[in-house]
């Protein structure tokens, strides 16, 4: 088979274009890796509660909005005490790197941590009523917004996210096929014990990044809520 004169078997652009494409791919990979390394830093441990003081016109409506936010971000409530202003979510396994739609592993470090280990988070929301924001000496038109409208309440909203890591005894795996039974009770542990393993959740402290994210979401979920103090600590 003869090639026609002037025709080249090389792709358009020749080797220069191929080198440029490889260089661009390496540059993108290097930039992505550098960004991951910069963000892959353990968050500083919080030294005070993540809280804000609000003026809440309707307490029950604010509690309902809080529950909706927890459901939205995969933290379904397990305990709701409206009288005490306490909401505790169910312990929920945090999202991994391929669960791009989840927000419960904020930051490169925590996303990598949740991808390498089984991490779960538990949210505790406290809505503590403090004082009535309107003074008793105020005119009746200001004190009573309406005959059926609830009086606004000054509340302290505190968000706490506790992390824990799954831990179980290591099993003896001596063959490749034995890895299939790594969670089986028939495989002994490295200490030689058989039977059901003692599983525990090791506390890892609080998650300040998710606490701040949820706090902002709770405030934005109720447009009629007014922020009195940006932060508060005990």
Keywords for this entry:
single chain; 234 residues; alpha+beta; 8-stranded antiparallel beta sheet; 24% strand
Tell me what you see in this structure.
The protein has about 230 residues and is α+β, with helices and mostly antiparallel strands. It has a domain at about 50-135 and about 150-180 and about 190-230. The protein is about 30% helix and about 25% strand. The longest helix is centred in the N-terminal third of the chain and has 26 residues, at about 15-40. The radius of gyration is 28 Å and the shape is flat. The protein starts with 13 loop residues before the first helix and ends in a 5-residue tail after the last strand. The relative contact order is 0.19. Mean pLDDT is about 75; it is low at about 135-145.
What's the arrangement of secondary structure elements?
Blueprint: H1 14-39, E1 50-56, H2 59-72, E2 77-81, E3 86-89, E4 92-93, H3 108-116, E5 119-129, H4 140-143, E6 153-167, E7 200-206, H5 208-220, E8 226-229
Antiparallel strand pairs: 1-6, 1-8, 2-3, 3-5, 4-5, 5-6, 6-7
């Amino acid at each position: 088979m003869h090639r026609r004169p002037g025709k080249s078997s090389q792709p358009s652009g020749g080797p220069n274009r191929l080198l440029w494409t490889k260089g661009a791919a390496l540059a993108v990979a290097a930039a992505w890796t550098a960004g991951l390394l910069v963000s892959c830093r353990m968050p500083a441990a919080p030294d005070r509660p993540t809280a804000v003081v609000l003026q809440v016109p309707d307490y029950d409506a604010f509690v309902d909005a809080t529950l909706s936010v927890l459901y939205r971000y995969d933290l379904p409530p397990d305990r709701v005490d409206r009288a005490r202003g306490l909401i505790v979510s169910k312990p929920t396994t945090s999202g991994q790197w391929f669960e791009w739609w989840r927000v419960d592993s904020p930051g490169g470090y925590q996303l990598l941590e949740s991808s390498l280990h089984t991490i779960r988070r538990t949210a505790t929301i406290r809505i503590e009523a403090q004082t009535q924001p309107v003074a008793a000496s105020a005119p009746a038109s200001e004190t009573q917004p309406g005959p059926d409208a609830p009086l606004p309440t000054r509340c302290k909203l505190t968000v706490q996210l506790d992390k824990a890591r799954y831990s179980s005894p290591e099993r003896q795996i001596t063959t490749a096929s034995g890895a299939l039974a790594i969670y089986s009770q028939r495989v002994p542990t490295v200490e030689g014990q058989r039977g059901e393993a003692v599983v525990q959740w090791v506390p890892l402290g609080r998650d300040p990044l998710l606490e701040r994210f949820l706090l902002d979401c709770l405030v934005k979920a109720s447009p009629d809520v007014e922020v009195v103090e940006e932060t508060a600590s005990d």
